[in-house]
């Protein structure tokens, strides 16, 4: 080994505390990057492979009913490659021992051969046998939630008739990687199932013999999805088409895409913070090291080492620290990634997950960090290398101290001598002090941003489920029904109050933009399901107009006062012009709200309703459920408390994971910055402090000078961290907002306190570590050696 | 002037300085450290550079050693023009030809005595073994000690070993005994004298201590940036005969 390299290792060993602190910050950055990107890549690859092997369709459509013969017309549309028609139905299920309402989507599979598109992946058992009307394959998540096995049975209400189904297989599907009930926020494995049954039997049971109500297709290479969709819509209009849509709008696929977007955005933000902090720390440490080694550099140069040798020497020092961090980060990132992958596979149901850290991801993480670190230290290294040896031999000029701004403001006698020293030190290097503050504030910001989603979710739940949805249950009918159905509901024992609503599938158009959704008609004076305007005040739809979710401003560009075109996809499919009378706050989904009578009138349908909101006595809950299952006109029941509970249950593990990771990372940054500042302060001012000790200052006073500065930096960093944290949170929220959901930027005061506590604690611990050295300052040595 | 060796003096000239000037500019203030030095140094001689503090001794030595550049005038080392040399040429020059000894030793604290010497021998073309260089200064048994484990005099001898280990053509020493007591100083000077005698290295020693001048072939006095006197010693004293 070269002698200079030996020096390097010994120097590194001497500053091992600082090196480890910086390596930790780098490791955190690499780990977050690897964690997020590798999870995303692994999920993407798994998804793509699953989609490909199990023939996920490119476009989808549902309709009321069309004869099988229509299939060939659709196949003839230019750009269409393969077409599959199916029968699909929403049914009520009853699982033995489970008393809450369960709904399921049943989709048909051909009686002979396997589906052309959206093929189920059979995990266990077998597919249904031809012509059997009592067999079903069940989705894995649901089967797991209820411990169903092939051979078990289920009761289903298919088209108003009870049917006992035998589970013959457990399967997954590219179509239902995420099994969310339409309109729900999160998958509910206990209360929502996907079932597969034979086409013939399902068709017969739903009056679809020789007909279909569900269509999926693939496109030829280069085909334009929008063109194909327009043509399909034109063909299906006669058959009660509910609007065809491309894969990008398919529910399960969309949720996955959103998740990837979130991972990508986080991968953009968080590792960048770590890299910046690490580069800053390295810069400070290398600058300091070089300045203490000025005369060594001069000697080495005097003996004929070249500038490049000197530069390389310090580059190696930086590289060693960075490589240490990278290696640790790769390991931790891969380990955490596996954990996150496991959490995701709970949520997203793939038949397999090939989790792996792609070499390119590892290489990118390594390259980015190394590059940033070297860029951060380049100037310091350059200055060291180009210092003329004769000059380098002289000690650095003494620091330039002035009376500080604060001192001029505050009368002298108020400030103690140590306090004055603290202030002069901070004011002498304002940039460095500021960068340290920014660094520490990043720790605080990461904590805030890491816990932000939990606060936002709490807030969304509060608004959505406590202030808007006050009903205990939402019952939907199989078909639009007379308003009189509400009396039947009110007669159910335990039901306290019932309010009807009408829901109509529509396409909304404004300008050249359009959006497929539904309009809900509500009764004036409703007390169960309330609407909130943009200031969160109650609002009722006026008779002559429509209220829209605020996000329609972004999606369609409409504003109150505009005239919205509404194409109804039901009944006589009228096309209407409706004035927009206001906007409402709603975080989940996009909808229009109208007065029930006004909507009925526009639909020319008398007093039809689609469902009822119920409030009920919780003691009678199970009886009510049982009654509802038996009512033929009831298609399904949503229970608000179940939704909330399920929402938290499905999110809990991921939230806990991210909070834990964020806390560890924030503590790492806080520790890295504070410990390094402290060590450098000690090396810069050890002599000064020791001299003060010799002059009779106590340990306490010395510690105060020393820790006071760190304390000041830490405290100054916290409010800044709050601001940055909120900035990052709103950046993430903004990036993720879509018609699926909008995340409000709400941060709980508890999150702020927790973030501050983590930062203060990390700072305190690193201060304590350095204080041990402070207490053992070698007073004699300090006076003997020259600087 | 010159040594009594006679013969082709110019062929034995190692350094030649003409009109050498160095001005330091510090803001509005200009410090004239050298004000036009004419000087020849010859092969194998041991020169002592005397003068009060601030007279320009270090500045002159640094320019001769390629650590600094002159403001005006010219210096040549054999056939190299140092005044017009670029930074990398000066580096090459120091690497091949010059050994330095500094007042404050300037050892690398994280390297042992042997390693401090090895740092230099590793990049030299015809070095001696670090162990041999350390033996020459009487430290053959302290090879693996770190600077902090050596006394001031021992550290300075390591510095001398480091300077001579690459077999340099010239040895430039800036107050090598400045930080040492007289007994220790004598040991260090003996080491320098031995190197000069045995290896024939042209040696320049800066001191402000006139007593040390006794061991020189020639003594050059500097004052206020100019050479005020050059004297040739008729009879050189051995270092142990010196007292201060
Ligand atoms: N880098 C510098 N900047 C400004 N003035 C300098 C510098 N180096 C030396 N000097 C000045 O040049 C003069 C000569 O310095 P120096 O050669 O170190 O003297 P000596 O070594 O004889 O004590 C002194 O007045 C000194 O203050
Ligand atoms: Mg000097």
**So how many helices of chain B?**
6
Low-pLDDT regions of chain B: 1-11
Strand content bin of chain B: 25-35%
Biggest interface and which pair forms it? A-B, 25 and 32 residues
Please tell me what the overall shape of chain B is.
globular
CATH class category name of chain B: Alpha Beta
Q: Which bin fits the share of residues in helices of chain B?
A: 25-40%
Q: Which structural class matches the secondary elements of chain A?
A: alpha+beta
Read across the widest sheet of chain B, the strand sequence of neighbours is 6-7-8-3-9-10
- Hey, roughly how much beta strand do the residues of chain A contain? 15-25%
Query: Cα-atom Rg of chain B, whole angstroms?
Result: 17 Å
Short synopsis of the structure:
With 787 residues, chain A is an alpha+beta fold. Chain A contains 22 helices and 22 strands.
Describe this structure as you would to a colleague.
- The complex is a heterodimer of chains A (787) and B (244).
- Helices cover 53% and strands 20% of the residues of chain A.
- With 787 residues, chain A is α+β, with helices and mostly antiparallel strands.
- In chain A, the strands form 4 sheets. Chain A has a 6-stranded mixed barrel with strand order 3-4-9-6-8-7.
- In chain A, a hairpin with a 5-residue loop joins strand 15 and strand 16.
- Chain A is elongated, with a radius of gyration of 33 Å.
- The two termini of chain A are 30 Å apart.
- With 244 residues, chain B is an alpha/beta fold.
- Chain B has a single domain (44-69, 87-241), classed as Rossmann fold (3-Layer(aba) Sandwich), CATH 3.40.50.
- Chain B has 6 helices and 10 strands, in the order E-E-E-H-E-E-H-E-H-H-H-E-H-E-E-E.
- A 6-stranded mixed β-sheet of chain B has the order 6-7-8-3-9-10, sandwiched between helices. In chain B, strands 2-1-4-5 form a 4-stranded antiparallel β-sheet, with helices on one face.
- In chain B, helix 3 packs across helix 4 and helix 5 (152-164) runs parallel beside helix 6 (182-199).
- Residues 1-11 of chain B have low confidence and may be disordered.
- The chains are: A alpha+beta (787), B alpha/beta (244).
- The structure holds adenosine-5'-diphosphate and magnesium ion (MG).
């Amino acid at each position: 080994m070269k002698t200079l390299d030996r020096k390097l290792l010994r120097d590194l060993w001497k500053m091992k505390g600082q090196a480890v602190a910086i390596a930790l910050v780098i490791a955190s950055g690499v780990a977050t990057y690897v964690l997020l990107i590798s999870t995303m890549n692994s999920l993407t690859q798994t998804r793509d492979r699953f989609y490909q092997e199990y023939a996920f369709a490119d476009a989808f459509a549902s309709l009321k009913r069309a004869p099988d013969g229509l299939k060939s017309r659709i196949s003839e549309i230019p750009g269409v490659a393969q077409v599959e028609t199916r029968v699909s139905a929403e049914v009520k299920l009853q699982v033995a021992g489970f008393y809450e309402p369960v709904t399921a989507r049943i989709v048909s599979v051909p009686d002979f051969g396997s589906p052309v598109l959206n093929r189920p992946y059979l995990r266990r058992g077998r597919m249904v046998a031809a012509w059997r009307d009592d067999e079903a394959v069940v989705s894995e998540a649901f089967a797991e939630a209820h411990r169903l096995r092939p051979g078990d049975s289920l009761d289903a209400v298919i088209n108003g008739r009870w049917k006992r189904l035998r589970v013959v297989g457990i399967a997954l599907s590219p179509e239902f990687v995420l099994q969310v009930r339409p309109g729900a926020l999160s998958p509910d494995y206990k209360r929502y199932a996907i079932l597969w049954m034979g086409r013939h039997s399902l068709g017969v049971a739903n009056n679809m013999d020789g007909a279909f109500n569900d269509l999926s297709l693939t496109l030829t290479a280069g085909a334009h999805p929008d063109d194909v969709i327009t043509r399909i819509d034109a063909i299906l209009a006669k058959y009660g088409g509910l609007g065809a849509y491309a894969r990008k709008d398919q529910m399960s696929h969309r949720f996955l895409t959103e998740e990837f977007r979130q991972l990508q955005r986080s991968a953009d933000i968080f590792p960048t913070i770590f890299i910046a902090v690490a580069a800053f720390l390295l810069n400070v440490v290398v600058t300091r090291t070089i300045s203490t080694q000025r005369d060594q550099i001069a000697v080495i140069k005097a003996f004929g080492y070249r500038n490049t040798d000197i530069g390389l020497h310090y580059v190696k020092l930086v590289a060693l620290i960075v490589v240490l961090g990278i290696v640790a980060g790769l390991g931790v990132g891969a380990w955490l990634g596996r954990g996150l992958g496991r959490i995701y596979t709970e949520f997203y149901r793939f038949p397999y997950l090939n989790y792996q850290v792609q070499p390119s991801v590892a290489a990118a993480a390594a390259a980015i960090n190394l590059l940033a670190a070297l860029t951060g230290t380049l100037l310091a290294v350059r200055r060291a290398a180009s210092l003329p040896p004769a000059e380098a031999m002289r000690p650095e000029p003494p620091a330039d101290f002035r009376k500080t701004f604060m001192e001029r403001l505050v009368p002298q006698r108020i400030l103690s001598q140590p306090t004055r020293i603290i202030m002069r030190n901070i004011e002498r290097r304002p940039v460095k002090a500021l960068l340290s503050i920014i660094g520490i504030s990043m720790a605080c910001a990461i904590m805030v941003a890491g816990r932000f989603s939990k606060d936002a979710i709490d807030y969304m739940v509060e608004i959505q489920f406590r202030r808007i949805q006050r009903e205990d249950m939402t019952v939907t009918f199989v078909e639009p029904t007379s308003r009189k159905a509400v009396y039947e509901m009110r007669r159910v024992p335990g039901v306290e109050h019932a309010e009807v609503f009408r829901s109509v599938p529509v396409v909304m158009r404004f300008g050249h933009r359009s959006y497929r959704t539904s309009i809900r008609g509500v009764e004036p004076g409703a007390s169960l399901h309330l609407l909130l305007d943009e200031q969160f005040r109650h609002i009722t739809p006026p008779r002559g107009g429509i209220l829209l979710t605020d996000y329609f401003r972004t999606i369609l560009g409409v504003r109150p006062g505009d005239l919205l075109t509404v194409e109804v996809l039901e009944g006589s499919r009228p096309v209407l012009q409706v004035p927009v009378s206001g906007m409402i706050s709603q975080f989940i989904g996009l909808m229009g709200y109208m007065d029930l009578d006004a909507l009925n009138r526009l639909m020319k349908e008398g007093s039809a309703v689609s469902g009822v909101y119920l409030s009920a006595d919780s003691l009678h809950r199970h009886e009510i459920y049982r009654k509802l299952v038996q009512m033929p006109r009831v298609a399904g029941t949503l229970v608000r408390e179940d939704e909330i509970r399920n929402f938290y249950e499905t999110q809990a593990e991921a939230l806990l994971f991210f909070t834990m990771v964020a806390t560890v990372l924030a503590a790492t940054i806080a520790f890295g910055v504070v410990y390094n500042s402290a060590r450098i302060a000690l090396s810069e001012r050890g002599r000064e402090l020791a001299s003060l000790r010799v002059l009779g200052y106590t340990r306490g006073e010395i510690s105060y000078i020393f820790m006071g500065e760190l304390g000041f930096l830490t405290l100054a960093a916290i409010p800044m961290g709050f601001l940055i944290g909120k900035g990052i949170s709103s950046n993430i929220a903004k990036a993720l907002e879509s018609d699926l959901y909008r995340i409000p930027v709400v941060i709980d005061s508890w999150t702020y306190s927790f973030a501050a506590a983590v930062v203060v604690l990390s700072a305190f611990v690193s201060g304590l570590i350095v204080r041990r050295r402070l207490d053992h300052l070698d007073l004699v040595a300090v006076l003997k050696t020259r600087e | 002037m010159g040594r009594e060796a006679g013969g082709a003096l110019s062929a034995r000239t190692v350094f030649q300085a003409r009109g050498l000037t160095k001005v330091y500019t510090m803001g509005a203030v200009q410090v004239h450290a050298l004000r036009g030095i004419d000087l020849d140094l010859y092969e194998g001689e041991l020169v002592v550079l005397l003068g009060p503090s601030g007279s320009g001794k270090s500045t002159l030595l640094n320019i001769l050693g390629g650590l600094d550049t002159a403001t005006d005038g010219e210096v040549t080392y054999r056939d190299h023009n140092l005044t017009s040399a670029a930074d990398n040429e000066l580096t090459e020059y120091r690497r091949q030809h010059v050994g330095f000894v500094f007042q404050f030793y300037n050892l690398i604290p994280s390297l042992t005595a042997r390693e401090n010497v090895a740092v230099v021998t590793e990049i030299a073309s015809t070095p001696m073994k670090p162990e041999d260089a350390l033996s020459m200064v009487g430290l053959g048994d302290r090879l693996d000690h770190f600077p902090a484990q050596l006394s001031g005099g021992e550290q300075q001898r390591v510095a001398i070993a480091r300077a001579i280990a690459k077999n340099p053509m010239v040895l430039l020493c800036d107050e090598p005994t400045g930080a040492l007591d007289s007994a220790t100083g004598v040991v260090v000077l003996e080491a320098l004298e031995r190197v000069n005698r045995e290896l024939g290295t042209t040696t320049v020693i800066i001191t402000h201590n006139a007593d040390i001048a006794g061991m020189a072939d020639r003594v050059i006095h500097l004052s206020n940036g100019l050479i005020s006197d050059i004297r040739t010693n008729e009879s050189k004293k051995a270092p142990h005969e010196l007292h201060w």
